[in-house]
Amino acid sequence: MFVSSIKHLKTGRRKGSSVNTVPTVTLVQSGINVQLLQEINGMLPGDYTADLHKYEWNYQNDVINSGEEIIDWWPVLAGTYKGVSSSTNITGNSFMDITPSVNIGGTTSSVNAVTYAWHVTYNVTQGASENKWIAGEARNHNPDNLNYMYSIHVNNESLSSVNEEELQREITLYPNPAQQSLTISYNGVLKHPKVEIFNLEGRLIKSIDNKTNIKKLMVDVSSLSNGVYLLRLEDKEKAITKKFIKQ
Asked: 96-130 pLDDT, tens per residue?
């Protein structure tokens, strides 16, 4: 298992980490009669013979530092490359079956992800040999590029000077999902908080230095692409990160 910090999210109170590991690859069955319903990787629609390979990731992560607990998790979309399904009617559409078991408020997370890739060996329609892969989102249909990643968000109470539960309760984001603007209400628990918006890769998308004494702040999110984002508020003493959806 490989764990790396998302530095943009890391503070003394909470941290984000990306969890990634090598998949287990299994040959499910060889010599299966399949049908391509559209052109995929240079192969025209028609009947083929192919081998089905299963790619499976089993992620397990323990929060080993004393006083830490998991408070959220999310898939890392930019680090995930889905394969295809095991259906013999092959459309080429991406597929991945994800089964999470994340102990929010606890110390363990377990996520299982399964996808498939087809190795096409014979073109039945043309009566000719083939040696190509169908692997969904994998670059150049190379199944070695298939991948799944997720991130966990961890709170460490022993490093926090302010109760995390109080911050979570007092700070709200609405509307969520948001289309044009997002209102942040922090009820005076933060003083002139700096606002930062990150995507799920941990890349900083937007930053606002708030100099006002108001208890609410409206942020324009109309230019953001649709998806899930992390909004971080920080003053000189406290910091908190919350998740919102842009539609």
From this structure: 998 888 777 777 778 889 999 999 999 999 999 99
Name the amino acid, one letter, at 10: K
Question: Are the beta carbons of 61 and 137 closer than 8 angstroms?
Answer: no
Range with the lowest mean pLDDT among 18-22, 128-132, 217-221?
18-22
CATH architecture, domain defined by 161-246: Sandwich (2.60)
Q: How many CB atoms lie within 10 A of CB 161?
A: 8
Residue 23 predicted with pLDDT over 60: yes
- C-alpha–C-alpha distance, residues 56 and 98, integer Å: 10
- Give pLDDT, residue 163: 57
Per DSSP, 168 falls in state H
Distance, in Å, from the CA atom of 103 to the CA atom of 107, rounded to the nearest integer, reads 7
State which amino acid sits at residue 9: L
Domain ranges of the chain: 2-154, 161-246
pTM: 0.66
E strands present in the chain: 2-5, 14-20, 24-36, 46-62, 68-75, 89-90, 97-102, 108-123, 128-134, 150-156, 172-174, 181-185, 194-198, 204-209, 216-220, 227-234, 239-246
pLDDT higher than 60, residue 158: no
